[in-house]
Amino acid sequence: PGRTELPEIRALKNADRPLLAIVGRLEYEKGHRVAIAAMRRIVDVVPDAKLMIVGSGSLEQELRGQVKALRLSDNVEFTGHRTQICDIMSNIDLLLIPSYNEAFGHVVLESIAAGVPLLGSRSGAFPEILENGKYGTLVDPLDPDAWADAALDIIANPAQALAKLKEARAKVLTRYTKEESVRRHANLYMRLVEDFSESNRT
Q1: Between 180 and 12, the higher pLDDT residue
Q2: How does DSSP assign the chain, residue by residue?
Q3: CB 103 within 8 A of CB 124
Q4: How far is Cα 55 from Cα 25, in angstroms, rounded to an integer?
Q5: What does the alpha-carbon distance between residue 56 and residue 52 come to, in Å, rounded to a whole number?
Q6: Sheet holding 118-121, edge to edge
């Protein structure tokens, strides 16, 4: 009683019209430009594929310009900042996480919890969280062709990505939710210590 069930891990809703998403601040280190460049190739193969860019930030106008230049205006939607990430996750088929150097992959854990296949950068915290691709596909963060190939492979053959996701549910989610809880308490403690020290100096 009181136990919350995780959403079902599911195959793509429609392989002819897959919905991809990026969730994060629109800043250089988040890698949106590489993902948008990859989207051009994805759309060449799957014309009705869509990319939802969730977040706000200083690169928004530049990214909108890139979308227009690549003739992707009908395939890419900028949603702005959204707080209901669970609602977004429940509607997408594939999450792209093209960050160059992510310290801790909260969005990876959200994706695993939501039952959504993911592509993550082979950089930052992702190789450790996903055990070098065992629990999710990793891609060179600077290679748009590699992102396009990996996304198209999951769209055409989702079985392997879904199998990795099931294993991630069993192993990664349990481990990192416990570690993150410890980390949050440690960070809060350090902030309180710093605030206390600062107040004693003033």
Answers
A1: 12
A2: --PPPPPPP---S-TTS-EEEEES--SGGG-HHHHHHHHHHHHHHSTT-EEEEEB--TTHHHHHHHHHHTT-TTTEEEEE--S-HHHHHTT-SEEEE--SS-SS-HHHHHHHHHT--EEEESSTTHHHHTTTTTSSEEE-TT-HHHHHHHHHHHHH-THHHHHHHHHHHHHHHHHHHHHHHHHHHHHHHHHHHHHHHHHHH-
A3: yes
A4: 5
A5: 12
A6: 76-80, 50-54, 19-23, 94-97, 118-121, 137-139
pLDDT beyond 70 at 185: no
Q: Is the pLDDT of residue 73 over 50?
A: yes
pTM higher than 0.85: no
Mean pLDDT along residues 49-74: 97
Lowest mean pLDDT among 22-31, 76-85, 111-120, 136-145: 111-120
Four-point Cα dihedral 41, 43, 46, 49, nearest 10: 130
What is d(CA 45, CA 150) in angstroms, rounded to the nearest whole number? 13
Q: Which of 144, 92, 100, 81 lies closest to 118, judged by CA?
A: 92
